[in-house]
Each structure stands twice: as C-alpha cells, then as structure tokens.
Amino acid sequence: MLMQRGLPLPAPERPAGVTLRPQEPADAEALGALYWDSYPKGAAAVDLEDAVEEMEGVFAGEYGAPIDEASLVVEDADGTLIGCIQTVTSPPWEGIPAVPFVIELFVHPDHRRRRLGTLLLLSAAQACFDKGWESLALNVQEETAGEAVYLYGHLGFNEITPVGAAEG
Ligand SMILES: CC(C)(COP(=O)(O)OP(=O)(O)OC[C@H]1O[C@@H](n2cnc3c(N)ncnc32)[C@H](O)[C@@H]1OP(=O)(O)O)[C@@H](O)C(=O)NCCC(=O)NCCS
Does the C-beta of 150 come closer than 6 Å to ligand 1? Predict the structure, then answer.
C-alpha cells in the first residue's frame, strides 16, 4: 500500500538513553545484521549475507539517491544500532510520487514500542521539510508489516493511488 503525508509532521521527542545520527557506509555490516533481525526470516532477505548486501546496495544508490539527513540510525547507550530509517529520492519503481520516499524503517524486536520507529520517522520528516519538501511517501506491505501500518496511520499517512495508474 502506497502512502503519503503532507509535511511538516510534529517535532520528534527523543526517548532517554538513545542517540540519533545519520547512517554511514561503515554501518553496512551492523545494519545488515539489524535488518536481518528485524524482519521475519525470509521476508526481507534470504540470509544475513544477503541482508548486508541489501544495505550496501542502499549506500550504492540501488534503491534511489539517499537523502543523508533523512537516513538515520538509532544507537543505544553502548553504541549498538537498534533502529534505522532510509529515505531516498527517485526510487527505481513505477508509480512513486516525486517526493522523498522511505525505502526502509526497522527497529530491533527487543526495542519495539519505545517510540523509536516514531522518532525515526518524525526525524526524517523534519529533515525533509527543512530541505524544502512538502510531503513524504512510503510503501508498506500490509500482510507482513501490520505494526508499521498502525504507526503510519497514527501519524496521518493516507493511502494514495500509484502515479500513472488508471483510475477506476
Ligand atoms: C514498524 C516498526 C518500525 C515500528 O517500530 P516501533 O519502534 O516499535 O514503533 P513505535 O514504538 O514508534 O510505535 C508507534 C505506534 O505504532 C503503533 N504500533 C507499533 N507496534 C504496534 C503493535 N505491535 N501493535 C499495535 N500497534 C502498534 C502504536 O500506535 C504505537 O504507539 P503506542 O506504542 O503509543 O501505542 C517495527 O515494528 C519494525 O521494525 N517492524 C519490522 C520491520 C517493518 O515491518 N518495517 C516497516 C516497513 S514499511
């Protein structure tokens, strides 16, 4: 389900004990492990190696041009990565509106319901607004990402028709 929301969104509130920073290419291995741990096995990657390659592909621009300020990681107090959002322009799929597009949002299962997903999404939205963008879009698989559907709905994202799709 393709979703979009006008900007700005509310300012993020940071939970205590976590740090937010832009992701860096040197994070690819740790991000791959987090990505692998965050989805049901087989849903997003075939194995850990595949998950790391996916993350390397994000940095290489295979899924669009990353917006650095809106591609963020959350670290806990000891520097372990526990959440990530990745936002791009010009993703390589049809039907996507010409606005910043969230290609990934994931939080480690041990750290869910701490508002970290909300922190990541609101922080990315704020960065996009600060860069002059007026809306943010994303795609969510309703069957496999029920929690995300709640989160996006809660933050006012609405389903949209893919750009160029025939009406009716
Ligand atoms: C989606 C995801 C990133 C949410 O991360 P999170 O840090 O747990 O989210 P938050 O704590 O910010 O939750 C925000 C709100 O979303 C809703 N929500 C989140 N998880 C929920 C659940 N399991 N059941 C019901 N509502 C849920 C709630 O309204 C929640 O607010 P509340 O805790 O005050 O009730 C996380 O579940 C995840 O990584 N899932 C696997 C990867 C994935 O599917 N990513 C989405 C790709 S489109």
Answer: yes
CB atoms within 10 A of CB 152: 23
Name the token pair of 90: 């010009």
Neighbouring residues of 83: CB distance < 8 A, sequence distance ≥ 6? 34, 73, 74, 106, 107, 108, 111, 116, 117, 119, 120
d(CA 71, CA 88): 8
Q: Which residues of the chain have pLDDT under 50?
A: none
What distance in angstroms lies between residue 165's CA and the mean position of ligand 1's atoms? 29
Taking the model in full, what pTM does it have? Answer: 0.96
- C-alpha 154/C-alpha 61 separation (Å) is 30
Asked if residue 114 has its Cβ within 6 Å of ligand 1, the reply is yes
Domains of the chain, first to last: 2-8+18-158 (3.40.630.30)
